[in-house]
Amino acid sequence: MRPSGRELNELRPISIETNVTRHAEGSCLIKMGDTHVLCTASIDAKVPPFMKNSGLGWVTAEYGMLPRATHTRMNREAKRGQSGRTQEIQRLIGRSLRAGVDRVALGERQITIDCDVIQADGGTRCASITGGWVALRLAVNKLMKAGDVISDPLLDPVAAVSCGIYAGQPVLDLDYPEDSEAGVDGNFVMTGSGRLIEVQMSAEGATFSRDQMSQLLDLAELGRAKLVEAQKTAAA
């Protein structure tokens, strides 16, 4: 039934390669099927002005797509200005990752997660969050190894996965052919222990019932468990 031939509850093949850039404190290249995202974490000793002297750390994110990440070339946003979609996604990544951080333990410093989409085939925001946490984990490991942070500020892994209703059936981890035709589209951001951080769901051509929403949540929990396992293996 699915264009890829996957089962309804089957994730795309996932791989997370770490330490892929030389200078960033944490980095990984996450591949979820044909969606590939480079995630880097950069540590700054200063926090934004609104956080100064608060004793709290801050985690933020920036997101972008390379010109040929999609089927046709896009102009770089540095040239045309950020779109509303880009701003919405990078805010989602930032607040999702902050939900898994003890900002007191992090101390008054900022970690910026940069997510650059090399190739897009659906689910780029979910891949960015999942890979972004791995980059964040690696950067925090360096802080702890150097003695700059005493206790681990990362409370729980954070991962995200898309689910939707395609051809009348609930499916896990939509690729582009499914995403573009889905009657219902949803993104689920969760902690490693299964707590919900954010749920984005919308009818894209068909309404959905509470039972269908529960089915999608069940699929998301299944996907979350597998993603967190991949995160922990990569960051070990």
UniProtKB/TrEMBL annotation:
The protein's Enzyme Commission number: 2.7.7.56
GO molecular function: 3'-5'-RNA exonuclease activity; tRNA binding; tRNA nucleotidyltransferase activity
GO annotation, biological process: rRNA 3'-end processing; rRNA catabolic process; tRNA processing
Highest taxon above the source species: Bacteria
InterPro entries listed in its UniProt record: ExoRNase_PH_dom1, ExoRNase_PH_dom2, ExoRNase_PH_dom2_sf, PNPase/RNase_PH_dom_sf, Ribosomal_Su5_D2-typ_SF, RNase_PH, RNase_PH_bac-type, RNase_PH_CS
The UniProt record lists the keyword Isomerase: no
Parts forming coiled coils: none
Family: Belongs to the RNase PH family.
Identification of the protein by name: Ribonuclease PH
Species this chain originates from: Qingshengfaniella alkalisoli
